[in-house]
Each structure stands twice: as C-alpha cells, then as structure tokens.
C-alpha cells in the first residue's frame, strides 16, 4: 500500500525527529519541526502537523546524556537544576550561614581587630601598645568613676558606654585580653578619635599624636605612677650641643623625644642610621654660631648627645620622603638590617650597660607612600614567641616563617622584587619595616609582672560582650538548623515531583515556563506563582516560537505545582494554535517561492506593455528593493502573531534607525494620493502587479489611468507664483538698501557723519536674516518685521550690548525700512555736542534712554560668568626677571585691515568689560555713561585711525604654554599641572597675574580672578638641594587634610608649638 505525498512527508519528519531527539542542536530541531511545510498547503494542515510544529513527538533526554538543557526540546527536563536535589546531598548545601564557631577565639591565641576600611595603621599600633605590659597595667589602673557609678549588685554594668579616649582604650585592651571572639570591632575608639575610616593617614604621625593625647589625659590623674607612665615608657632626653671652635664653650639645648627619626638613605643597617643621627655638624661661613663668651660669630660644631633612653625605644625609619620630580611623597624600599639585641652603650655617655631586645616590627606593604597595608610583627612577653598581626588574622611565626619585617609588597611581582641581602645570626633584614620597637632588658624578670589581671568593672563589661557573642552563636546555629530542616523538606518534595514531571505518550500534559522550573529548583530564589501570559500569541494561545521557553510536563505534576504555588494562564493541550501554524506555513512557502518569483517579475518588467493593455503605477524605489521588502514583510507577519496588536500589511518595522515604510509608499503624496512627480514611478503590467500583490496585499494600488493628487497640483502652481513674488520683492529691497546689503559706507560712533545728528538701531539678527532672503528668495520666506523690543530691558529702557548684536542705520535707510517692514519699537541715537567746552568730548543720547540698573546687572552677570567656567584655556609664561615679566605681561595688539573680522576687546575682571559699543573700526576707547544716562566718546587719536585694535586671538610667545583649567580648580592643582609642563616643583613656583601674586594654594582659580585666556607669569626659585628641607617646605605650602576630632586638636597644638619653637 502506497501512502499519499502528505503522509509520506509526515512519516519522514517524525522519523527525523525521533533520530535526532537526544543531542539535536536547537536549529536542527527548528528545521525538522517545520520541514513538512514545504510540501503541505496551509489549507491542508492537520493536528499531526500542529504537534510536529510544537515538537510534541521529540523524545525526552535521559540523565547523563546532556551537558545542559536542550532548549529546543520541550520534553527535555535535564540540566534545569535537578542535580543538586537528586541522590544524597550535603546538609551544608541547604544554607549559606558560616559556622559561628569559626568566629570563636582559639585557645592560647590572641584577638584580632576589624579593619573598618582604611584603619589597618591604627590596628597595628593598638596591638603593639597592648603587648606593652607596663602601659596596659597603667591603663587598667586609670580611675573610671563613670563605670563605678553604673556598677550594680547583679554583676552587670547597665547602660554604660565608654566616652573618653582612656575609657575606650582600657575597654578595648580588656576585650583583647579576655574576649571569646576571634576579632573585635575598634569602631568606638576610632570614632572617639575622630578618624576618617575611609582615608589612610600617616601612621607615624598618628603614633606621635596618640601618645601625646594619652600623656595629656593621664597627667591629670591623682596617681603619680599614672601621671608619668608615658614618659617612663617612651620618653628619652638628648641635647643639641654647640661647641665654639675658638673658646671651646659648650652650649647645650636639652630636649625630649618619644622616638628617634632615622634617615635610611644610603645606609644598610640600624647602627649606621643611629650614627648619622648623632654625627657632628660644622657651622661656618654664613651659618656661623654667635658665641656668648666671644660676643661674636664664630665657627663651631653641633651634634646631638643622648642623655637618657626610655624603657621602650622607638625607631622611626624615614621611608617616606618627598620627591621633587613628581611633587609627591615616595616610599624608599631600601633594605635595612637590625639586630634582635641592640647595645646602645656606644651611643651614650657614662652608661655602663644599656641593652635592648627587639619587641615589635611595624611593616608597610606597598610601593606607594599614599596607599598600602600595615602589619605588625610582635613578640609575646609571656612566651617570647613572635606573632603576625594582620587585622582580623593572627598567625604564629615559627620555623621558616620567623622572618621579621619580611612581607611581600602589594602589586609587585616576584621578578621585580630586589633580592634580600644575607643577614648574620641574630639579625633581620627588611625593606618594608618603618618602625622598630625595642624593650630594655631586665636582669631578672618577675613572672608576676607578666601576669596582668583585668579590673573587675572591665571584666564585667567583657563578660557582657561574651554573653552577647554566645547568644549570637546560638542564634546562628538555630538559623542553620532551620535552613537544613527546610532544605530536607524541599529535597523530598523535589524528588517526589521530579519523578512526575515527564509526560508519557497518550497522557494529558501542560506547559510551564522553563525559568520558573529553574527558580523552583534553585533554593536561593524566592518562588513566585506560575505565569504563562508572556508566551501567548495574538490568538490567546501558545506561540510556536515560544516552545523553547517552556517545558511539557504531565497534567498530574502541573496540578500539584499550581496547587502549591498558584498561577494564572494555564497552557494545556488545547493551547496549540492552529492559526499561528497556518500563518507560519504560508510564510515558509512564500519565502521558498520568493527567489523564483523575483526572477520572473524582473523579466516581465523588461517586456513592453501591449497597446490594448492597462497597467499599474509602481514606485521605482519599491521595484528595486521589493525582494528585501517582501522578506521584511514575511518576518513581520511571523512577529505579529506573537502580540495582540496587529500591523498594517505591507508595513516594515524600524530597523537601524530607518523610518517605517510600505511597498509603493514612494509614490504616495502627503494627502494619500498619487504623487505628481512622474520621474519616481513607472507602469507595470497587470501580471507583474498580481505577483507583487501576493506579498503586499494591502499596498496602495493606482491603475494607469489614475489621476495625480489635485491638492498637490494646486500647491505646486501656488508655489511657483509665490516664488516669482519673492524674487520681485527681494530685487526691490536690495536696490533700496544696497549699501546695507553689501556692508558698505556703514555709520559708526567714532566716524559720525557731519550732515546728520541721528542714527537708528536695529538688531543684527534682523539684518542677517534679511540678507539671507535677498541672496536666496526662492528658498526662504521674506522678512516682514523688525523686532527691536529684544534690545529693551523689562523697564522699557535701551540695553547697551556688544556691537555684534546691533546695527546702525542711516536716516534714509531707516525711512525705507519703516515703509517696507513692521517695526515694533523705534530706537535711535543722537549726537549732543557741547560748544561751550572745546575738549573734543562728544556726548550721545539714546531714545529710549539707557537703563542704568539693567546695564549694571548685565555687567555683573558677565563678570560672574567669567568666574564660572570649565575646560578653559590659560597661558603660563616662565619669566627670568621682573623686567621681562612686566614686558611680556603687557597687552598685545595686532593690525588687521578686515572690516568683517569678528574681533572684540578681551574681557577684564575688574568691570572694564563694558557691554557698550566696545569696539569700533578705529579701535577708539569705549564710551562712558554720564550722570544723565547719556554716554561720551573721546576724540579719535592718530593711532586709532591707523586701524590698530585689540584682537581676541592669543599670540603665544617663547617659554609660554597653554593649560586647560576650570574655575573650581584649586591653585594647588594648577601648580601640579605647571610642574608637569615646566618641571618646576610646586614650592619653587611664584605665580602672578597682572602683577598680583597668587599665594593661597587652597583657593579656587575663580576666586583668585583667573579667567579664560588669562596670562599667568611663572618665576621659578632655585632648586633646594636638601631633601629634608624640601619636605618641610612642601608640608607648609601643601597642607594635607590631616586628622580630626580630639587627635586633630592635639595635631594642631603640636604644629603651633613647633612653629613657636
């Protein structure tokens, strides 16, 4: 038995789908699903064809055969997230809560400190000071009356919060000693100090300021041991000793120190640094010393003598120095060797024994002085073991890890790091250590001295915090348990429902969104109700193109899912859309037929029409591109079934910015009729038109005998008549106002004609528009009115503006303009000559009068605009001496003979940019208002008659460079730009403008009177050879923001004290 062609095609397609069911790519599935449409007409489509289009017969994929889900197969339920739920799974997969015990402090370990953003430098010092047992013991003895007042019999300190720096510090030390947490939060202390947690400050400066603040606070205690604890621990004494070479008189100047600041440039070990610190300095020449004994200046020597050393000796290694090439600080990565045991006896006079042991090394990781990370290596006083303190992380250093001061630099590869020099036993070498802490060796160490008990009131605070921590641990453990229980229940639910998802042959089924199934299997996503509405076609059913976005499941599983999670718009077996399949079938067949029809149409177009045959009008552009238009139309026919809003047949959507276009639209006029432009259309035969109508059934149709649009023909006739009228009007106006059109013989205030005392004013905009019309009357509309009201202020007074905005007219020209145009306001200017005074001054009066109030406001607004600019150009001239600076800063003049060159006076900041008739052809001085509101003009000089005037074009000179600046930019930022342009350090720059020095580095350029096109003179000082002196100068000239709060107050006090000294 032989089957018909339709059944044969159906069997072949089903066979292809069955063979390619498992691993078929999406495009192959798409092609196989519609292969039958090539041989089946739209009216012959059956239910089997519809199921093929929706791929109902494609076999489901088996687990393990797909790497990911097959989106083209609605029956593939593999790779949608089910792997984590099937089989045995780890309980930790049911929650994202870390084990709270990981936050618990391990036995015999120290407590870390949280980094609040950029507070690692604070954390390192706090850990070092915590391990200073004498300091910790003293702080515990600090009298805290507030805490004692809150103490209750219940053993808790209710409503107590530390306030002062010492209260915060002693509470922090108590937590570091007895807390159950792995790390604690120092935000209370940081907030009390007023530190910016997002900005990394100078670590050495913080150490000095904090110890000064602590010393000031403890000095007010009644206990004498507390009053002097900072001095006993950290304070030493030295003297600046000056010796006269003539009489030998010594002049000591005693001083205290809390750390020794050592220069490391050119040195290899700590001993060399200390030796240089104490070396002798010669005072001779201009630097001679005034000797009180000799009563005259004498050559002398000066050096530092160490007199006493503290118990804790801090060495600040000056790694951060100023680089005058870049204008910023830089870090010195020099390797410095330092011993574990330091003998200071050679540097002291009259001391028998003075030995120190290394107690801590503070490290800066990073190659920049303005960023990086701070770490501390600290020795435990109880066990003598070394530990690395890195914020929250604490690590014991032993074995190969016991390399003090060694940390890899941030953002530096192993290849770029300098090789570490070899160190002797008992020595360590570091390129990142910036502070070394040594403790004085004691002959006998009392073990009771190393055991420090936390005071009772502080221990109660610690116990309260430990209680909160335990409660938090229990809460986290309960949350973990709840998540695990919820996950196990979800596990059972998924295993049960996943087995019911596949729809067997002959079993009822529904479609659900693929994304919803994925979210259902993803436990971290909140599950919403099922929504299929986005997959509907314009007929309210499932669109065939959306089959890749849904999955076919059994009705039993669908009932359970909709029952548990809810949903709308269920898609069952009846949701397969016959209309969409039929439309797709028609489109596929037309696409296959398009190439053949295109060749046939183009051949028919070449044949001439028969004499008795009536044709149809078609656009030439449409005929050239009809195949592409047809393809676009077919694609839109497919797209429109996806949406409820249909489109006009033959219409093309916007693509790549093109306008929407219909076939034959190029021969439509604005009124919807046949266009009168016959060159854009041609006649084709009825056979050609019928072929095209298959692809564009709703395209506009015009038989050959159809008349062109009557409205367009009437407008064309009227347009030709108007064009002739415009030409006549333009010729008449041009002949009447020829000089105005050609810009010849124009009146000016400086060349006032002798035969008239009145001139008239019109806007320059009117003249420009009128000239455009005269030049091309057929392309534009004639100018009908003169809008002089724009030259008046709200009070009706005349506003003096730039001469580029107004034009002066002769009385005869004004008579013509008044006759030919509508004038809303007459504005004139009269000459008033005072015959009693023979000084050559001529006054002028306008009608309406000048409005002084609005004129001054206009000038003020101009001046403000000059101070509010962005991306403007200024010029910097490097000068050698004052004479040249004065010469080069003089105003520039250029000679120009062009009458139409658009040049005007450069604006000045002090109110001289008067918006009057500021420039004339002769370049005379600007007009000045008198008390009556009129203005006067000085007589024209010989120089002005020669045609010399100020030009806005800047003429660059040798040694001058242009910089782009903004008004809100500071002078400091401008100096950095100048440094890169001229290689002159900021502190070597002396800037001036118009003879006025610019000195306030924090002021903005706008506030300093720097306007666009300004000329700034730069005089460079001689370079400073001493790097330390440069650093000091730069710190004075370029102040950093520094510390705030209480520690900032100490910082300012120290600076004032330093200046006073």
What would you note in describing this structure?
The protein is α+β, with helices and mostly antiparallel strands. Helices cover 34% and strands 19% of the residues. The protein contains 30 helices and 45 strands. Strand 16 (373-379) and strand 17 (386-390) form a beta hairpin. Helix 7 packs across helix 14 and helix 17 runs antiparallel to helix 19 (626-640). The longest helix is centred in the middle third of the chain and has 45 residues, at 456-500. The protein is flat and about 135 Å long. The N and C termini lie far apart (119 Å).
What is the rounded distance between the termini?
Answer: 119 Å
Extract low-pLDDT stretches: 1-24, 644-660, 882-933, 937-952, 1024-1040, 1055-1061
Total beta strands: 45
Overall mean confidence score, pLDDT: 78
- The percent range for strand residues is 15-25%
SS-based structural class?
alpha+beta
Annotation field: number of helices: 30
Q: Major β-sheet, in short?
A: 8 strands, mixed
Alpha-carbon Rg, integer:
47 Å
Percent of residues in helices comes to 25-40%
Shape: flat
Catalytic activity: Thiol-dependent hydrolysis of ester, thioester, amide, peptide and isopeptide bonds formed by the C-terminal Gly of ubiquitin (a 76-residue protein attached to proteins as an intracellular targeting signal)
GO molecular function: cysteine-type deubiquitinase activity; cysteine-type endopeptidase activity
EC number: 3.4.19.12
Domain Ubiquitin-like: 965-1016
């Amino acid at each position: 038995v032989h089957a018909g062609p339709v059944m044969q095609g159906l069997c072949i397609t089903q066979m292809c789908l069955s063979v390619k069911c498992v691993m078929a790519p999406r495009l192959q599935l798409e092609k196989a699903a519609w292969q039958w449409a090539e041989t089946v007409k739209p009216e012959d489509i059956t239910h089997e064809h519809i199921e093929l289009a929706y791929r109902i017969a494609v076999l489901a994929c088996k687990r393990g055969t797909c790497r990911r889900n097959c989106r083209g197969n609605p029956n593939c339920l593999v790779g949608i997230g089910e792997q984590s739920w099937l089989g045995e799974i780890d309980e930790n997969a049911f929650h994202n809560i870390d084990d709270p015990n990981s936050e618990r402090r391990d036995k015999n370990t120290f407590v870390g400190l949280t980094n609040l953003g950029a507070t690692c430098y604070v954390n390192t010092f706090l850990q070092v000071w915590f391990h200073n047992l004498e300091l910790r013991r003293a702080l515990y003895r600090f009298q805290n009356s507030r805490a004692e007042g809150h103490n209750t019999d219940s053993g808790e300190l209710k409503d107590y919060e530390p306030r002062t720096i010492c209260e915060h510090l002693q509470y922090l030390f108590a937590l570091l000693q007895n807390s159950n947490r792995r790390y604690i939060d120092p935000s209370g202390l940081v907030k009390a100090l007023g530190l910016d947690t997002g900005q990394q400050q100078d670590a050495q400066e913080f150490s000095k300021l904090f110890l000064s603040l602590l010393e000031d606070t403890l000095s007010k205690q009644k206990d004498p041991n507390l009053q002097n604890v900072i001095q006993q621990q950290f304070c030493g004494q030295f003297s600046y000793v000056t010796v006269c070479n003539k009489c030998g008189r010594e002049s000591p100047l005693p001083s205290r120190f809390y750390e020794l600041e050592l220069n490391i440039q050119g040195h290899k070990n700590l001993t060399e640094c200390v030796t240089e610190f104490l070396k002798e300095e010669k005072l001779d020449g201009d630097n001679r010393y005034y000797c009180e004994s000799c009563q005259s200046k004498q050559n002398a020597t000066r050096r530092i003598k160490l007199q006493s050393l503290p118990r804790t000796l801090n060495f600040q290694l000056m790694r951060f120095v100023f680089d005058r090439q870049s204008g910023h600080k830089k870090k010195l990565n020099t390797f410095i060797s330092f011993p574990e045991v330091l003998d200071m006896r050679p540097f002291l006079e009259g001391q028998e024994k003075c030995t120190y042991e290394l107690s801590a090394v503070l490290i800066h990781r990073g190659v920049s002085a303005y960023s990086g990370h701070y770490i501390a290596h600290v020795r435990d006083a109880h066990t003598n073991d070394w530990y690395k303190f890195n914020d929250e992380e604490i690590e014991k250093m032993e074995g190969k890890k016991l390399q003090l001061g060694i940390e890899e630099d941030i953002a530096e590869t192993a290849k770029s790091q300098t090789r570490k020099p070899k160190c002797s036993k008992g020595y360590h070498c570091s390129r990142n250590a910036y502070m070394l802490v040594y403790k004085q060796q004691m002959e006998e160490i009392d073990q009771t001295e190393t055991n420090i008990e936390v005071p009772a009131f502080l221990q109660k605070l610690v116990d309260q915090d430990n209680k909160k921590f335990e409660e938090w641990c229990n809460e986290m453990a309960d949350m973990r348990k709840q998540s695990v229980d919820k996950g196990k229940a979800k596990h059972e639910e998924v295993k049960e429902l996943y087995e019911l998802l596949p729809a067997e042959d002959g079993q009822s089924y529904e479609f659900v969104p693929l994304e919803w199934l994925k979210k259902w299997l993803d436990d971290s996503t909140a599950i919403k109700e099922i929504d299929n509405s986005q997959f509907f076609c314009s007929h309210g059913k499932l669109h065939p193109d959306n089959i890749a976005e849904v999955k076919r499941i059994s009705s039993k599983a669908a009932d359970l899912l909709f029952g548990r999670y809810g949903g709308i718009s269920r898609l069952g077996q009846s949701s397969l859309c016959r209309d969409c399949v039929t439309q797709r079938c028609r489109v596929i067949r037309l696409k296959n037929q398009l190439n053949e029809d295109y060749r046939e149409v183009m051949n028919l177009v070449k044949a001439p029409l028969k004499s008795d045959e009536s044709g149809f009008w078609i656009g030439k552009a449409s005929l050239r591109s009809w195949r592409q238009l047809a393809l676009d139309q077919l694609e839109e026919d497919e797209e429109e079934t996806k949406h409820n809003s249909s489109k006009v047949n033959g219409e093309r959507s916007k693509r790549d910015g093109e306008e929407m276009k219909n076939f034959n639209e190029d021969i439509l006029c604005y009124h919807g009729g046949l266009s009168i432009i016959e060159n854009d259309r041609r006649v084709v035969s009825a056979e050609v038109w019928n072929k095209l109508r298959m692809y564009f059934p709703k395209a506009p149709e015009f038989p050959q005998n159809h008349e062109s649009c009557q409205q367009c023909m009437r407008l064309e006739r009227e347009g030709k008549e108007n064009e002739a009228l415009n030409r006549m009007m333009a010729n008449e106006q041009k002949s009447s106002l020829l000089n105005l059109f050609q810009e010849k013989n124009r009146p000016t205030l400086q060349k006032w004609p002798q035969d008239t005392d009145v001139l008239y004013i019109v806007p320059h905009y009117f003249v420009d528009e009128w000239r455009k019309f005269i030049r091309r009357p057929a392309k534009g509309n004639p100018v009908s009115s003169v809008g002089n009201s724009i030259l008046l202020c709200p009070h009706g007074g005349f506003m003096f503006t730039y001469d580029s905005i107004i034009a002066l007219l002769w009385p005869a020209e004004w008579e013509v303009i008044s006759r030919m145009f509508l004038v809303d306001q007459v504005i004139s200017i009269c000459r008033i000559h005072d015959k009693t005074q023979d000084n050559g001054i001529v006054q002028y009066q306008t009608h309406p009068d000048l409005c002084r109030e609005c004129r001054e406001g206009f000038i003020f607004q101009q001046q403000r605009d000059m101070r509010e600019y962005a991306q403007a150009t200024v010029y910097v001239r490097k000068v050698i001496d004052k004479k040249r600076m004065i010469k080069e800063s003089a105003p520039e003049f250029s000679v120009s003979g062009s009458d139409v060159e658009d040049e005007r006076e450069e604006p000045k900041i002090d109110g001289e940019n008067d918006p009057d008739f500021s420039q004339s052809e002769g370049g005379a001085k600007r007009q000045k208002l008198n008390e009556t509101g009129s203005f006067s003009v000085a007589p024209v000089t010989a120089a002005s008659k020669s045609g010399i005037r100020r030009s806005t074009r800047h003429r660059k000179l040798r040694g001058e460079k242009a910089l782009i600046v903004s008004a809100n930019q500071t002078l400091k930022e401008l100096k950095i730009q100048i440094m890169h342009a001229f290689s002159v350090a900021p502190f070597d720059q002396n800037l001036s403008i118009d003879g006025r020095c610019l000195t306030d580095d924090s002021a903005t350029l706008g506030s300093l009177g720097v306007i666009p096109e300004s000329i700034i003179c730069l005089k460079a000082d001689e370079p400073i050879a001493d790097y330390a002196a440069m650093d000091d100068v730069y710190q004075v000239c370029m102040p950093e923001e520094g510390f705030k709060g209480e520690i900032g107050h100490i910082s300012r006090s120290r600076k004032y004290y330093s200046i006073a000294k």
